[in-house]
Design goal:
The chain is mainly beta and 1019 residues long. The chain has 9 helices and 55 strands. The chain is 7% helix and 47% strand. The longest helix has 22 residues.
Length: 1019
Amino acid sequence: MKLKFNGFLVLLLVLVAQLTFAQERAVSGTVSDNTGMPLPGVSVLVKGTKTGTQTDFDGKFSIKASSSQILVFSYIGMKTQEAAASSTSLSVKLKDDSVELEGVVVTALGIKKDEKKLGYAVSKVTSDEITKSGEQNVLQALAGKAAGVQIIGSGGTPGASSKIIIRGANTITGSTDPLIVVDGIPIDNTTDQTTAGDNPFNANLSGINNSNRALDINPNDIESVTILKGPAAAALYGARAGNGVIIYTTKKGKNGKGLGIDFSTSLAIDKVSQLPARQGKYIQGGVPTNTKPDPTTPQSWGPTAASLGLPAYDNVGNFFQEGITQTNNLSFYGGDEKATFRASYGNVTQTGMIPETGLKRNTIRLAGDLKLSERWKAGASMQYTHTTNTLAQNGSNTSGVMLSLMRSPINYDLRNYKDEFGNNTNYFANYDNPYFTVNENPATSDVNRVLGNIFLTYSHAEWLSLTAKAGIDTYSDARKQIYAISSNGDSLGGIGEVAFNSITNKDYYGDLIATGLLPLKSDWLKINYTAGLNLRSTQYLSVFSRGKGLSVRGLYNLANATELYASNYEENQISRALFAQVDFDIKDQLFLSGTVRKEWSSTYGDNVQSAIFPSGTASWILSNTFGWSNFVKINYGYGEVGIAPAAYRTISVYAQPNLTDGFTDGLSFPYNGVNGMGLAGRLSNPDLKPERVLGHDLGLSTKFLDNRLTADINLYYKTSKDLLIDVPLAPSSGYSSQYKNAAELRNKGIEVELGYDIFKKSNAFQWNINLNWAKNENEVTKISGGLSEISIETAFSSIGYYAVVGQPLGSFYGTKWLRDTNGQIVVGANGLAKLDPVKGNLGNSAPDWTGGIRNTFGYKRVSLSALLDFRHGGVVYNGTGARLNTIGMSEGSLDRERNYIIPGVKEDGTANTTEISAKSYFQNFIGDNPTAAAEEAVTDVNWIRLRDVSLTYDFNVKQFPFLSSAQLTLTGRNLWLDTNYKGVDPETSLTGAGSRINGLDYFNNPGSKSFIMGMRVSF
């Protein structure tokens, strides 16, 4: 009986085995990445067995498996994916495991978090969006791509600075720049204006528009961008995060088969996007009865060129040229389970639309990670950038390119810019010819910069991991400005000048961080913690030297100068901090987080010394709690961040006194060979503490239709307290002001981000729509000392930039028309409008709302993407247009052969009927004569622009086994602009990113529109 049973058992096993093998059959297919490119070397394993294979060069595989088994696809650097072997033909797409993709974002201190668990709003921008924009400045590349993020360019010239404001301005006199972090290390993004120690004016109004130093980052090295907008998100950065944080994560090496190589190249053509329209009929002169051009005036109120038989020159059309930008990037990457690396080189060569301007940038970046053992891991990166820039004179400047160019009369050919002796020749002797400026008065910048970081991590257990991280950011900037003999620049009177400015900056940064998951024996509660300390030191030195009165023409050396001057500024800061964060995960439904940072800084007053910045957030995934098929989350966060006081304000310092009348350089020491120093006008303050930004965030996030429809709505309310301003003091005190915490303001707003995939992923044709919209309301709520307003930064005599209680920050205050009780302009007996003796609010430069809509279409290997950028409201002061009206060069001044009546009422209340000449109307009503009101030059601006559009084709490279992918991209940037503004592109700022003034247009350099063709291949 036993023998029969054993025989039966053997027979049964054989039958089962036969049935099992009978179910096995060949399963084949293709594995590709998220862009559709085939992936060679992907591991394909039958789950629970040792049966496996790899994909070939075309991403194809074949393996035996039964219909009930699961295939596991894995590839280093990609997310592991499983697929049922129920079909004999499979097509699998693996997703990149980088931080930019689904679910994972980089937050404060470089901590990676699941986005669905966050209790605050963040915005993400992908590497594709940055590179396809074609922008060389990684800040300008963010324009229009994130709700609540406003980008303000300063012109289309090479290296022009870009300013960024997140959720409105949070400070009155401090910088509005957010903190820029690259791979966990904060870096310097200063826009530094060269200023001589004896210059009594705001150097931002004239001279050179220098670059913001984020320009030194190669956009092609960026993997992803995370924008931490509110205090709850940025609290761990303390007194450096008052304006938000932008976190750039760079590309790293990948664990894969062999060496990966990427090469990309592009060619861009830049053209002027928009210029003020000019008249092309009347010649230079003060009256139309002249019989020839009058070189004693820059005005063009003379007779017509045709009446005198004179040719008319298109000086503006002749001057600008097509700018050319060539960009090349090469990277090598690879690795295995123990080590990964990436090495890249980027080169940019750009010639500007303004002749003789240009930019060259060479960037080398090395990054690597090394797994020393199961517990130890190390990594490092290093970047060296060499950036050279030739810039153009700008703004309110007798050497300014646009000032002389736009005022030029049609009867003078500007191309005749030198006489036989090499002296400046122009239609008006007080202005430098723009050709003379760009050829003979160059301003250059030569920057060498090193960014580096290193980390070492010890993973003891799941409950404890220690990371030591250190970083350095150091650069030198050698600047040189030349004013050739006969130049009017710098109020020289033609004697010639050479000036040097040497800037060095060093930032040192270090963190020691402990993280872990507490070992709780609970399935419903998880507690993660982060704790550590931070040290930071900054050393800054600027040395300025100048020589006036050159003896030998063309020799630009201080030894060739008659009058020498030198000044320097030095600043050293140090801070240290302790920080901690605790995260609670309750049943994967409710997520709570709290942080605290205690910070000490050398810029705090002796009576203060330290500050504490807390935050607390909560998010609830309702769909997990109630079992909904669609994702729904609500979140709330509160946090406090700060802005540190400026250095050396806790002590009274000595300075060289100077006196000026507002027009000339005035008098200063040394005077007549005698030097003198005195206490500066600012009184010391030992009670200084950082400005504080207290913010509430409330958000709703949803995903519907299998994640095809996403919506994020965020409300915020921020109060900025202890704002630092210079409060006036009685002159009898011996001081003019004291720097103190003495003001408050408020920001509140709403942000909306929507995304919709019109078709399912399985559809051959894809259409995705992403929309962002944001509205911010700002108000100055308090200024101490009984003040109702303070000047934010010096502008012009007719218009200034102010903080006014009860008004939005950054209001333009200037001259206005006198009006009656009905708002009608009061006109005097001479027919001219009367000025109100009290200046008033002319509007605010901040937009009422901003938005962007991106449409992305895809069909097989072709994709098309277009971003429309919207702005509604916010004023711009068109000082350029006002001056062109005054001198008779505006397009409107063509209509001059008649009289005008200013709309308004006489002083007795009756309608004005007094006629005035066209010249008087354009100069005294809509011009910028002292009798005209600045309000006439202020425009409430709206725009719709095609920010970027790109068409990409992915080549089929199967027949080329050495290629893994190849792409051709055609891109247009700012190709179309619809705006009511009549000047240059209204996305402009005369004073640049280093200034607190926005919306000022006074002979600004123009913006650009670009046509770009690019190619990328991978091996």
